[in-house]
Amino acid sequence: MLDQLQGFHIEPTNMCTLKCPRCARTTFNEKFKPKNWDNQNLNLNHLKNFLDINLSNLQIQLNGNYGDPIYYPDLFEMIKFFKSNQSRIVLHTNGSYKSQDWWQELAELLDSNDIINFSLDGIPENFTKYRVNADWASIQQGIEVVVKSPVTVNWKYIIFSYNEDTIDEARQLSQHLGMDNFIINNSDRWENNDWLRPKKYVNINTEEIFSSGTHNGNRSEPITLWKEQNQRDNIINPLCKQTNSMHFISAWGYYMPCCWVGDYRFYYKSDFYKNQDLYDISKTTISELLNNLQNYYATLERTKLEYCTFNCPKL
User: Fold this and answer.
1) Predicted pLDDT of residue 265
2) pLDDT of 94 above 70
3) pTM, full prediction
4) Which pLDDT value is given to residue 230?
């Protein structure tokens, strides 16, 4: 598996300025109270030592279950490390509350091989119904800076009940701002009878990349179908094995096969939590870990792990 590794998903921080109602961070604090929350930033030195492999041309997704990577204090140093090793960066962010100078410094670190995805679920007049506390003025300022750079800049739009009729307006705004692509996504971030549940876009594959003219399948389609059917298909089709780019490193400094393992709904019941010292990146390397996990990946389709049946059912 190591010789075919394509990339990593790294959560630099679990800190965020937003309170999105179905975000794992928000729901965790609603269920377990903020006093149980522990702000964490990934130790960059531990990460560098953990990644004892050739990083050239690997895709590094900077995103998180709980946080927005732009609030990671060592973000520029992290990006410099990966770019010096010829990696490709894909940064996911809402984009709120950073200055023009900050965005300019970020843009100068990236090149045409890199991507910035702005997560904006609606138009300026309605997107804060989900992205609570977001700030359009600072987001637009950031977009206006980075679209002038070689980096690819995308608008990612999750469909909810409140924004399913403003898709065209948002797409037009993305084009007006000079963004490269407008990507719409189906969502699993609602329950039955949830006010966020869309009426028009439930059981269809809605990940479409406008402007580029391409069309990609979306892993949220099986999730949405699973919710609609109210059952799980125990036959799984693991995305982690298909792409070999899902390897997740949390802000707490632990390795997991994918970010779904790190979701609190699954993590505290998993072996990756129960034996977390084995997956502490300060105590091992990716080479050693993947060698030890060969049996885990070989038996993944048979073990029927909860996070796999939730995220990667074969329908």
Assistant:
1) 87
2) yes
3) 0.90
4) 45
C-alpha torsion angle, residues 244, 249, 255, 257 (rounded to 10): -30
DSSP state of 126: T
pLDDT for position 218: 38
CATH number at residue 136: 3.20.20.70
**Cα–Cα distance for residue pair 4/297, rounded to 1 Å:** 14
Q: How many domains does the chain divide into?
A: 1
- b/e 24-55 (16+ beta carbons within 10 angstroms → b): bbbbbbeeeeeeeeeebbbbbeebeebbeeeb
Among 80, 71, 61, smallest CA distance to 10 is for: 61
- Over residues 231-273, the pLDDT tens digits come to 455 678 888 888 899 999 999 999 999 999 999 889 999 999 9
Residues forming a β-bridge with 154: 117, 181
Neighbours of 234 (CB within 10 A): 12
pLDDT for the residue numbered 38: 85
**What's the whole-number mean pLDDT along residues 286-314?**
88
**Residue 86: strand, helix, or coil:** coil
Query: Which spans in 65-166 are helix H?
Result: 75-84, 100-109, 136-146
Q: Using CA of residue 130, residue 131, residue 133, residue 134, what is the dihedral sign? A: negative
CA dihedral 169, 172, 174, 178 (to 10 degrees): -160
Structural domain including 194 reads 2-311
> Using CB atoms within 10 A of its CB, is residue 124 exposed (0-12), middle (13-18) or buried (19+)?
middle
| Sequence letter at residue 268 | Y
Going by their DSSP bridges, the two strands 181-185 and 208-210 should be labelled as antiparallel
